[in-house]
Write a structure and sequence with these properties.
The complex is a heterodimer of chains A (383) and B (123).
Chain A (H helix, E strand, L loop, with lengths): L2 H5 L8 H4 L8 H6 L3 E5 L2 E6 L4 H10 L1 E5 L4 E6 L3 H5 L15 E7 L5 E9 L4 E5 L4 H12 L4 E4 L3 E7 L3 H6 L13 E6 L2 E6 L8 E7 L3 H9 L4 E3 L2 H10 L26 H6 L5 H10 L3 E8 L10 E3 L5 E11 L4 E9 L8 E6 L2 E8 L11
Parallel strand pairs in A: 3-13
Antiparallel strand pairs in A: 1-2, 3-9, 4-7, 4-8, 5-6, 6-7, 9-12, 10-11, 11-12, 14-17, 14-19, 15-16, 15-18, 16-17, 18-19
Helix pairs in contact in A: 4-9
Chain B lengths: L1 E4 L4 E6 L2 E6 L1 H7 L2 E5 L6 E2 L4 E7 L3 E5 L4 E6 L2 H4 L3 H4 L8 E5 L11 H9 L2
Antiparallel strand pairs in B: 1-2, 2-3, 3-9, 4-6, 5-8, 6-7, 8-9
The chains are: A alpha+beta (383), B alpha+beta (123).
Chain lengths: 383, 123
């Protein structure tokens, strides 16, 4: 074995030196107590897995409930009478017509139509509540401030933690702390008390399962996490399971599957662009994005199922059956619920049709694979 | 038969000029759930320190480098069907391959069980 990679458990264990500059979430001590293996992710020392391991944590989320610490993500508040209209200049989503307590998945775009980040925006009545990615959050904040700062109050909610309770049994667990959570539908969030703890509870997530993201004061996060973990249905899960769950659910990972060089149309995210926004434009990159919406793109994000057992990792070349390069895998691994390898990648559009036979260049061998419909595992949201 | 260990977390069991090679229990614990193992085919000539096999966990792929040089006689086909055997019995049923040793003196650079355990404890 490669001793250095192994000693780090393939970047799973962070040495003390490497972690010296990494930030910690409010739940760090709890993770340690639970026997987490840590990895540095977006400048944070985060649990990649606990004792049970990625496979068990993944399956736990599909069958029961799993608790994730996602406090590394950046929570942003935008307040002001023109907040929704202002934000619409930066995203192609319909924000203006978002009903109170409704949340929407949208994309921060640049003038070339590239994706700067993917966000969840909630109409929190007197403000917009935004959750952005950890690695891009600071840049997002600066970008939003630069565009909206003169008319709106834009601030990072730096003293807030974020927990995700995901899985088919998440609702029954959370309902013990407040039965009102049962009334939330998918992509709906509001402020409510969980026991004695004030929180913003949103019914959404990144696993394909029913579940909740819970924003709360950092100093109360460990108490709530312990309370949730005490439920027999709940086990802690790390970033490893979070990644395999979202991959099976066909959800993009920013930095892998989408970035500033990819547009929403290439990434098959046209569904995030509302009817009014398609007609009116008025968002960063709208010329490119609306043209691509009409005319199509050269490349397209697709689901890939290797035929054999070998996973194809990010960076793997995708080839036609005759060996011509036609694209690249952007996320790939083993899908524990699928029981086989799964991947996302970009291919030339004429090879993007579902059922197309392709090859993957894995360590110099051409392995058979097929373009398949997404998601790999059906979504089970509470609509 | 004598069993040797490498700093790259492999075990090498020697019987005459034939060696059976696998990864250690410590290694499988670090890797986590093994979902795929790519093994060298019979006849392949392995050079000490060069790539010999690949182990894939849910999260990542890791190279296994040859702890000793030799010619592969047989790969453990059980690992193709049941990669999780590596997690269950890394130092037994889940051997990776057998080879004929090219240079017995390479064994002198490996550790015995006691030295390997001390090495792991020092990590």
């Amino acid at each position: 074995m490669d001793a250095r990679r192994l000693a780090r458990g393939e970047e799973m264990i962070v040495s003390e030196q490497e972690s010296a500059t990494a930030r910690r979430t409010p739940l760090f001590e709890l993770h340690r107590e639970l026997g987490a293996k840590f990895v540095t992710f977006a400048g944070y020392e985060m649990p990649i897995q606990y004792q049970a391991g990625i496979m068990a944590e993944h399956l736990q989320c599909r069958s029961g409930a799993a608790l994730f610490d996602v406090s590394h993500m950046v929570q942003i508040k935008v307040a002001g009478p023109d907040a929704a209209l202002g934000l619409e200049r930066l995203v192609p989503g319909n924000i203006k017509d978002l009903a109170p307590n409704r949340a929407r998945y949208t994309l921060l775009t640049n003038d070339a139509g590239g994706i700067l980040d993917d966000l969840i925006v909630t109409n929190a009545e007197d403000h917009l509540y935004i959750v952005a990615n950890a690695a891009t959050g600071a840049a997002d904040l600066a970008h939003i401030k630069a565009e909206l700062g003169t008319t709106c109050e834009v601030e990072a909610l730096a003293d807030r933690a974020l927990l995700a309770l995901q899985g088919p049994l998440a609702a029954q667990v959370l309902a013990r702390l407040n039965p009102r959570v049962m009334q939330l539908r998918f992509m709906e969030g509001c402020d409510l008390k969980l026991g004695m703890i004030e929180a913003r509870v949103s019914r959404l997530g990144y696993t394909g399962e029913d579940g909740f993201e819970i924003s709360l004061a950092a100093e109360q996060a460990t108490d709530l996490a312990r309370l949730l973990l005490a439920a027999p249905e709940v086990e802690a899960a790390g970033l490893g399971a979070r990644d395999s769950l979202r991959l099976e659910a066909g959800l993009c990972l920013y930095g892998n599957d989408i970035d500033a060089t990819r547009t929403p149309i290439e990434a098959d995210l046209a569904w995030t662009i509302g009817k009014r926004r398609r007609e009116e434009g008025g968002f960063a990159g709208h010329e490119v994005i609306l043209r691509q919406l009409r005319e199509g793109t050269e490349r397209k994000l697709v689901g890939v199922r290797p035929t054999g057992r070998a996973p194809a990792r990010a960076g793997t070349e995708i080839q036609s059956v005759t060996g011509a390069p036609i694209g690249k895998v952007t996320s790939g691994g083993y899908g524990p619920s699928v029981g086989a390898p799964v991947a996302l990648g970009y291919v030339v559009t004429n090879a993007a049709e579902i059922g197309t036979e392709i090859q993957l260049d894995v360590r110099g061998r051409s392995l058979p694979a097929e373009i398949v419909a997404l998601p790999f595992v059906p979504h089970r949201y509470h609509r | 038969m004598t069993r040797y260990y490498s700093k790259d977390h492999e075990w090498v069991e020697v019987d005459g000029d034939v060696a059976t090679v696998g990864i250690t229990d410590h290694a499988q614990g670090q890797l986590g759930d093994v979902v795929f193992v790519e093994l060298p085919e019979a006849g392949k000539v392995l050079t000490k320190g060069k790539e010999a096999a690949v182990v894939e966990s849910v999260k990542a792929a890791s190279d296994v480098y040859a702890a000793v040089s030799g010619t592969v006689i047989q790969a453990n086909s059980a690992l193709e069907a049941t990669p999780s055997l590596v997690n269950e019995d890394a130092e037994g049923e889940a051997w990776f391959f057998k080879l004929t040793l090219t240079d017995q003196s390479e064994l002198g650079e490996l550790m015995d069980k006691e030295a390997y355990d001390a090495f792991v404890a020092s990590l």
